[in-house]
């Protein structure tokens, strides 16, 4: 089933056409890769998908619990709709502990109101307990439980990326958007991350969309890949198809790529 | 319910009551005379102000330089209700709280988009606007102020309202709402992406903070008997901010301790008028550089898990 | 007719003073992102220096102006080194409170030495009122001096920040201190330079205000400082022509509001405009849009 | 293989770290690090996240202060020299995380990169070259750098670092966030400027590439040097393979 | 309260508290008053003190803030056990300072808070422990309105007042009522804020309304600038003011030329040649290196008046002092002869001065 439908989507910044006439469908329970040269518009595309930017034209439709179209996309509503993301430049709550970072991810599942929290009514304790359990589970999955009381800013880069993913998962999303999750990781760590993403996807029954320049991860993980260049969609297909596409090799992968991989 | 009846909570409640009764006793014995009590009122009001500003600035990261304006609104509301309309104090307090909270919504909503220093300047402007409106408000006495406001503030009211402020704000902070608010300070975009309705929380926090500042204003008006717009100017806002920063942003306990400490500093400088402000300035500066609040912060844990 | 022309002139004269002070404010804010609340008080010190030079030592206008600028520039450098530098990299609020502390220190330090009462400048510029065509309106020749000097300093500052290496260093530093150092920019020197320039501008403003209004006192810096800051924000803080624009804009608005019979609320209107401008364009009328990208 | 192909008596040590230690508060990030870079070499520094690579570079360029040891550059200890002075000695550092000036245009960013230089004509030529190397930057010349895409910012950071015409170039993860095609280009550029006389100390997560392009390499682990050797040997070292090259 | 232990009658010295604005935005006035007070008590002590004891001044700063004023008042009453509190300077701060004084039954005397409701509460009842030694706003306002309309014969007056000062506001209200009652017309009323420096806009508006006379109830700092700028704009009508103008600074700021045709009401004439005034001026000049202004003189007189009341009370007892103060009659000071009325307001003559060649000179006297 197509979970996200993108129609004729464009975004301009002044003269810069960052995204142009993109038509894409994202299938449920698949891992979809978005690749393309620097400045191709991938991050912009994510920002459109999460309501941080409004499209200059075109439309995005989510078929989640309800149908939501781009007019109603707002960053703070995405989590409720079931869409969570990570950022290319890590955006953790630096001064908060790892535990609290992930706890914030659970925010949209909290239901008790302000009054119960001030009066400490039973619903408060119930809600907090459920949240703590969820966060504990996630931290264990990501092997971060012993670092739960560290301030986020004190973690190494790789761990920070993992906390970001855990935080996104705490929202119980159906769609997970990852922007360059492997950036700054060495090949070893990338391998581990690849496995982790695969596992998480299966375990939580997610639909994953990811942007990545590390082809080892992309080729291993993705069911389908879309290639952007100068805001346009220049190719789509399975990893094998894309990898051998002349245009993609020329614009993105480079001549040596095949030899090196 | 059993979580509420833990031993710790019982101890806390007993402690709170014990302090109340002890002070009451000392007042009756005359150990706490009118001068000490006056200073206790000042400190108590400052505690409420600082803790409520801490919610806005310390926890949520919304830089406000206009907190005294909310206090002014509360003070005038209560003064009018009790002095001009002759209503009981409780009405004055509720009126003050509501009026100030409304003002909080009023200033919080349009300035949502502003960040950091720009918000600071906008709130400073708001504070000045309130003051100027006060100066021109005939019914409220204009520049001449309002006097002969009945003195209703006593130890019971003061203490009850301090406790109320502390309980409400710290319980608010130690809930998912509080975490949401802190995450806004850390990274607004990430926070929104996690489903935190940042606009709602910012306005909410502004109005809760304003509400308590309004209550502080009511206590002030109904103790000090006389108010005028200039009592709630920019420097008053700065004084509150100094208490908050000195106590540590995001530390309620710190705000309480520093409200007491700074009042004592101010008292001790009364008798050296020529150098009072110079010394005060140097103290401020030293505090900013040597950060005594880091000492306090060793004890604080705003996000202590409850459940 | 006379009234309208006269009010416009009043507005421009007042605005030129705001603009002059706003230049220094914007300069410092633009580089180290600090609302330097002490700026107005450096101005006050400049005014007293000018007062001492012209009134006691008999200097004439230009030398007094220059000496006062240099002295205030040095004062600014010292303030930065002593008060702000230890807090560099700390929280914004601490820096702001320190700035307020410096402001109080200068105000009351000065008061301790010269007393709270005001002093009066000697007339060092001709006290001539020029007739404006045949309208009956007059303009004070001192206003012309101020306008001229403001525009001159604005052009000079724009040149410095946009064209010279020092200026580029300042801007780079304001955006990323570490990276600027890696480009070979000496942070301390550049910040000192910025404070020197900004405070020298305050010194100039102090002397000119002293001459224009003829009275000075230790607390004189606070209000114009705040107004100038508002001007700088309206124009887009950190942006030099913005500060001048904001200054004239605020001067004219205040005058128009007063002239329309609402003098009592002119400051409220000024702040209201500030808030409105910030709401419509959060970085000021001539400000950049923020370059933060997610 | 530029450096090592010269006669041995002409090789001079450009940079030498002797027993270098660095602390962040109570945390010791570098422990007794010994490392040297000969003139004309490309040396790579490899290690897991948090092993202290960035710290090493930041300490060399004066952004962090050592807590022990010394940093000799051309025989002189520079561990107390100001960062801005170190640049003038010929060390240019392309920092981790790009650190471009967001509210300056691409062009102005480059200008700042050349701010210490006095040779105007050569600067003009180097600008030309930057744009030849990264045509994307020419397209975006007047855009505010903060609005560039991640990869574009990385290109800008590298170009800006090169404009100082350093003797010693410190690169911190230059390939991060770059498209595969560009990654290769970057490494070719590194090789070219090295051939033209610039010595390079390279920190890289992509250990394959780093070792492919460098003469020698050091492996950092938890703040100390775990291994060092010629790159061609390191590539074949089993331990390195397992830990850093993905098996 | 603990007023009981507050008796200071048997102490070695007599303590008097000064609760003044020594920092903050009206510290100029506070300092001026304190200068006058300190000079007076020094003279008194040199002459042997009061009731055979030396007077000890406890000087405390209230930062020009209302809550501090209350705090200081309470402190002086309970901690320092003063027999009386002098100050604060402004009406607002006096209103804040008086509840603790009343509560502890300490007489509080202000030499400069002119608001009518300082000594009267909202029910019109006199506040038992509060006294003032300066004119009430109503008195000066009415006097100047009469003077402008009847004496000078001006039918159209413009007012430029200080919106932040209750003094200015009080004068304006009373002036307007009387003036309009007499049949005059207020053609323009504009207002500024204390510490403003640019009045040209307001003056341009006022000029356009073609007044015969300009009434400026304010303090010399601003009024000096106003008169100067008015003349620069070509607004050359006579200017009227009240005792807030009385300071040598006025001349310094505005210049002699601009001050031609300026009249103001005051307690006394500093150009007075009576020996007391001359001696005071000389002594003051010697002590502080400047000519005295109205605040200096008022502070000085208040000090002597309190000393006088203490002598009459016969002991440094708060209650007795209060009664003696209330009974003050024909006390002769620099600023005129003063009798306390039943509302604890002074009855004293007002002098109207005209500035001629920069010198305020006696123009006429108005008995209360
Ligand atoms: N706010 C903005 N203003 C102007 N131009 C912008 C803005 N945001 C993005 N751009 C431009 O749009 C283009 C696409 O940027 P985007 O960040 O989407 O690229 P990307 O595909 O994620 O690249 P990378 O792989 O390097 O991260 C870039 O050329 C960038 O310069
Ligand atoms: N400013 C800082 N304050 C405290 N600790 C720090 C700071 N910067 C780095 N560290 C710590 O020092 C150690 C080394 O960090 P460094 O950034 O040098 O590692 P790195 O090898 O560059 O890692 P990465 O590959 O993730 O960039 C880490 O444990 C890190 O947590
Ligand atoms: Mg991107
Ligand atoms: Mg690193």
Q: Would you write up a description of this structure?
A:
The complex is a heteropentamer of chains A (261), B (307), C (294), D (247) and E (368). By secondary structure, chain A is α/β, with parallel strands linked by helices. Chain A folds into two domains: 162 residues, 3-Layer(aba) Sandwich (Rossmann fold); 66 residues, no CATH class. Helices cover 41% and strands 25% of the residues of chain A. In chain A, strands 6-7-8-3-9-10 form a six-stranded mixed β-sheet, sandwiched between helices. In chain A, helix 3 runs parallel beside helix 6 and helix 5 crosses helix 6. The longest helix of chain A is centred in the middle third of the chain and has 20 residues. The two termini of chain A are 33 Å apart. The mean pLDDT of chain A is 90. In chain C, 73% of the residues lie in helices and 3% in strands. Chain C has a two-stranded antiparallel sheet with strand order 1-4. A two-stranded antiparallel sheet of chain C has the order 2-3. In chain C, strand 2 and strand 3 form a beta hairpin. In chain C, helix 2 runs antiparallel to helix 3, helix 2 packs across helix 8 and helix 9 packs across helix 10. The longest helix of chain C is centred in the N-terminal third of the chain and has 31 residues. Chain C is globular and about 60 Å long. Chain C starts with a helix and ends in a 14-residue tail after the last helix. Chain D is built from eleven helices and ten strands. Chain D has a six-stranded mixed β-sheet, sandwiched between helices. In chain D, strands 2-1-4-5 form a four-stranded antiparallel β-sheet, with helices on one face. In chain D, 55% of the residues are buried. The interface between B and C is large, with 41 and 42 residues. The structure holds adenosine-5'-triphosphate (2 copies) and magnesium ion (2 copies). The site of one magnesium ion has 3 residues of chain A, from helix 1.
Provide a quick synopsis of the model:
Chain A is α/β, with parallel strands linked by helices and 261 residues long.
For this entry, give a set of tags.
heteropentamer; B: 307 residues; mainly alpha; ABC transporter involved in vitamin B12 uptake, BtuC; 13 helices; 0% strand; globular; disordered C terminus; E: 368 residues; alpha/beta; seven-stranded mixed sheet; five-stranded parallel sheet; 15 strands; 20% strand; disordered N terminus; binds adenosine-5'-triphosphate; binds magnesium ion; ATP-binding (chain A); L-valine transmembrane transporter activity (chain A); ABC_transporter-like_CS (chain A); BCA_ABC_TP_C (chain A); transport (chain A)
Determine and state the CATH class of chain D.
Alpha Beta
Major β-sheet of chain A, in short?
A: 6 strands, mixed
- Identify the most extensive interface between protein chains: B-C, 41 and 42 residues
Helical proportion of chain A, percent range: 40-55%
**Total individual domains of chain A:** 2
Reported by name, the CATH topology of chain D is Rossmann fold
In CATH terms, the superfamily of the largest domain in chain A is P-loop containing nucleotide triphosphate hydrolases
The ordered string of helix (H) and strand (E) elements of chain D is HEEEHEEHEHHHHEHEHEEHH
The tally of strands of chain D reads 10
CATH topology of the largest domain in chain A: Rossmann fold
Q: What is the arithmetic mean of pLDDT of chain A?
A: 90
**Annotated CATH homologous superfamily of chain D:** P-loop containing nucleotide triphosphate hydrolases
